[in-house]
Amino acid sequence: MAVPAAHEFHWQNLACLSSGRVYHSLAEVGGQMYMLGGCDATGRATNSMELYCPEVDQWVNLPPMPTARAGAAVVVLGKQLLVVGGVGKGQHPLKAVEAYNTEEGKWRKRSSLREELMGVAITTKDGRAFAVGGMGADLLPRSVLQQYDLRKDVWALLPPMPTPRYDASICLQGSKIYVAGGRQCKRLVKAFEVFDMDSRTWSSLPSMPCKRSYSGVLWDNTGRLCWLGGLRQGGIHQSSKFTKNVSIFDTSQGSWLKSEETNSMKTKRADFAAAVVRGRMVVAGGLGHQPSMLDTVEAFHPGKRKWESLAPMTTPRCSASSIVIRDRLLVVGGVNQIPSSAHEILYVKEEEVV
């Protein structure tokens, strides 16, 4: 299938947030985008919840979360949003779990985690949530894998990961959960492991080629797992450096591609928005070696096997939250010196945006 050309991608500004926001969570139910929590301009966690209405290009306030939090793990279970852990107003990890019913417009407190956790990675399979790792109140990483059943409101422990960590990247393919990278206190880890839901066992895979953080993690159009850019950790006497390298893991072969088999991005960057839009991997904004935030955007063309520049974002920023809904990339909030209220959409020219 042909992919759109670079000149067909366009940005459009949408209704701004009521105030700057960072470390918020986005989720989509029935084609509608929900924004939950995050930190406001003062750096405090908020309990706000808002719905974006594209028909009138407005944000609508919904009932607030029972618990203010930032950096929460959020997944969709049917018509409900499950919100897990995160950081509360006192900058401490949370064990509170809450669910919002989008049809009833009501919040309900659910069974809590066994302990306070932040930096939890989460995914869903067959109507159940799987929460991996996290950092506890003692600031140490965890190896726990927990399964949540919404109907029974019960958390069940599954075999723990071989490598404790938080802020890991998690990807689901079939009945396997891939967990890569993450942190142990201030140290980055390059461990790469997979959990098989059928056999309920963990397996260690070849480690990531290097230790890096703030990368983009995507499945490409051939079903391979791609780590894009990021901040590469330096050695004992070396500083960390931004990278434009792309590392690709072939799940069918169980190995990483050689560097000469991959195509680096045009710009070194970290902490950027990343998504697949109309068959093309797209990266937008972030931080680089420049003194200011990036507004540059690029997309990988699978046929030409190269990265191409797209139109830049209107508002340069990093740490933005992003989501793809109906083949359109929405980038919300983030940081440009201070928390940003910007809200932009990347779409293909032939489409009507609103």
Automatic annotation (TrEMBL):
Out of the domains of life, which is the source?
Eukaryota
UniProt keyword annotations, A-Z? Kelch repeat, Repeat
InterPro entries according to UniProt = Kelch-typ_b-propeller (IPR015915), Kelch_1 (IPR006652), Kelch_domain_containing_8 (IPR051746)
Q: What Pfam families does this protein's entry cite?
A: Kelch_1 (PF01344), Kelch_KLHDC2_KLHL20_DRC7 (PF24681)
Kindly indicate whether the keyword Transport belongs to this entry. no
List the protein's name: Kelch domain-containing protein 8A
